[in-house]
Amino acid sequence: MTQAALHVGLIGLGTVGSRVAERMLTWQAQLSRRAGVELCLRKVLVRDVSKPRTVEVARELLTSEPADLLDDPSIDVVVEVAGGDEPMHSYLHRALSAGKHVVTANKVVMANHGPELLSLAAERNVDVYFEAAVGGGIPLISTFRTDLQANRIERVSAVINGTTNYVLGRMAGQGMPLEYAVHEAQDAGFAEADPTDDIGGFDATYKLAILGSIAYEITVHPRDIYREGIEGIQPVDFRYARELGYAIKLIAHTQRHPGRVEARVHPAMVPLEHPLAQVEGANNAVWVEGDLVGQVLLVGQGAGGKPTASAVVGDLIDLARGIRRGVQARPSFSFDDRIGVIPIGEVVTRAYYRIQVDDRAGVLAAVGQVFAEEGVSISSFIQKDASIQDKTAEIVITTHPTADAHLQKARERIAGLDAVHEVSSFLRVF
Ligand SMILES: NC(=O)c1ccc[n+]([C@@H]2O[C@H](COP(=O)([O-])OP(=O)(O)OC[C@H]3O[C@@H](n4cnc5c(N)ncnc54)[C@H](OP(=O)(O)O)[C@@H]3O)[C@@H](O)[C@H]2O)c1
Predict the structure, then answer these.
(1) What angle do CA 80, 167, 351 make, to 5 degrees?
(2) pLDDT for position 364
(3) Under a CB-based contact definition with an 8 Å cutoff, are residues 374 and 404 in contact?
(4) Mutate which of 11, 15, 166 to test ligand 1's pocket (most atoms within 8 Å of Cβ)?
(5) With contact defined as beta carbons under 8 Å apart, do 63 and 44 qualify?
(6) How far is the CA of 16 from the centre of ligand 1 (A)?
(7) CA distance 363 to 239
(8) Can 43 be counted among the known catalytic residues?
(9) Ligand 1, from 10, 23, 46: best to mutate by most atoms within 8 Å of Cβ?
(10) So what's the pLDDT on residue 328?
(11) Is the previous residue joined to 401 through a cis bond, with omega within 30 degrees of 0?
């Protein structure tokens, strides 16, 4: 690379890529001044070059041939905003092997292959920037990578999926069933046509894998993270949650323990006064605790073309500055494979159960006995008016902290009691 210019190849010209290209093409002078080198967009790889675009990009910049970008020695940086595991993992591997730097917004690739790509980059004396892969425009990775470097990170808890936060907010506020709230989120542009990745907690799991890996400098693979989506939550759970002083959020949580870490994604009852309970709409928030800094809260728009482009182009400028100074000056990550993730059964947590029972004498004693036999101690109990017609009652129980395996065993055994119709909800309490 000539130090006077940084030549960029962009992969993807969709929601994020269009905004990245737009900022690079219309704000080139300002970005170049901040970077200290001229930032030049040289090539844009897409699937279909004839597709109408929301940004004006010269036809000669567009290609659908990966080699035009990956094998062009004049391109210094590959910016990948296309998404998905393959072929993007292979493309980024190829770019790094050829000595190109990488900026990516791809959480799937970084969660599944981050440590491998970062090691390859270190070998080739180039770098991988991935600020946009977690939390859209919120400066998270750079915060860990620089500002929190003096800390031992103790825990990271986050509302990291905007779609589920929007959906849960509508269910809580309007009493909507999940399917309605999802439709509404789709209409408002906060949910994909197929919302499985978000609603099922997969997206949050990828992000937590990345955050956990960089927070503790260990390899946290998405498959090691306990995952549960929000599919089972019903409007009535929000009413009980409020009564008990909680909000319901999809929480991604990781915490350091001696020799191991906790890493889990699931819906949870969060005390109303906790900052994560107050995250509104499609916003994201990450709450970090370090041994020196104490607690830090980072909040903002976790998705959308513009906030994500802010992170991508910010990375590009940071990279350009780093190259001017010499990339070795930038702190790199090391990943310790010996520290594993604690199985969910061993995680100690509180729980909320909503149970449908026969409205007759002795039922509560039977339920209480199961809890006692599983070593689960009850913290609160609510019983609403019983239905006279079908002689059923709904009871809600919260517990004190207990190993998750015992909470699950109690749930299973209670569901099997004669007088119990079903355990309608089980939620962990944060
Ligand atoms: N959207 C967000 O709010 C957001 C937020 C944070 C992170 N991200 C991440 O940013 C990345 C891009 O997301 P997006 O929403 O911008 O996606 P998108 O709107 O679907 O755009 C994807 C772009 O990549 C191109 N592409 C896909 N596969 C390709 C392939 N095999 N070869 C060449 N080009 C290919 C597509 O080309 P065609 O246009 O020709 O089809 C399209 O231009 C993803 O990793 C996503 O997770 C997105």
Answers:
(1) 105
(2) 94
(3) no
(4) 15
(5) yes
(6) 7
(7) 24
(8) no
(9) 46
(10) 55
(11) no
Phi, psi of 123 (to 5 degrees): -60, -40
Residue 106: Cβ-neighbour burial (10 angstroms; 0-12, 13-18, 19+): buried
Rounded to whole angstroms, how far apart are CA atoms 342 and 206?
A: 17
pLDDT at 3 over 70: no
Under 8 Å CB-to-CB from 84, ≥6 apart: which residues?
106, 108, 109
Catalytic member of 43, 100, 207, 249: 207
Alpha carbons within 13 A on the beta-carbon side of 105 = 35
Percentage of the chain exceeding pLDDT 70: 97
For the cut 70, the answer to whether the pLDDT of residue 223 exceeds it is yes
Buried b (16+ CB within 10 A) or exposed e, 212-233: bbbbbebbbbbebbbbbbbeeb
pLDDT at 2: 44
> Which amino acid belongs to residue 198?
D
Per residue in 94-124, pLDDT (tens digit) is 999 999 999 999 999 999 999 899 999 999 9
pLDDT at residue number 324 = 85
Quick one: tokens of 331?
């702190």
Alpha-carbon distance of 43 to 46, in angstroms, equals: 10
pTM (2 d.p.): 0.95
Q: What's the distance, CA 216 to chain centroid?
A: 16
Residue nearest to ligand 1 atom 21, measured at CA: 14
The tens digit of pLDDT for each residue in 282-333 reads: 999 999 999 999 999 999 999 899 999 999 999 999 999 988 887 554 656 7
Residue 286 near residue 211 (C-beta atoms within 8 A): yes
For position 1, what pLDDT does the model report? 46
Residues with CB under 6 A from ligand 1: 11-17, 45-48, 51, 81-83, 87, 105-107, 132, 136, 303-304, 308
* 214 pLDDT above the threshold of 50: yes
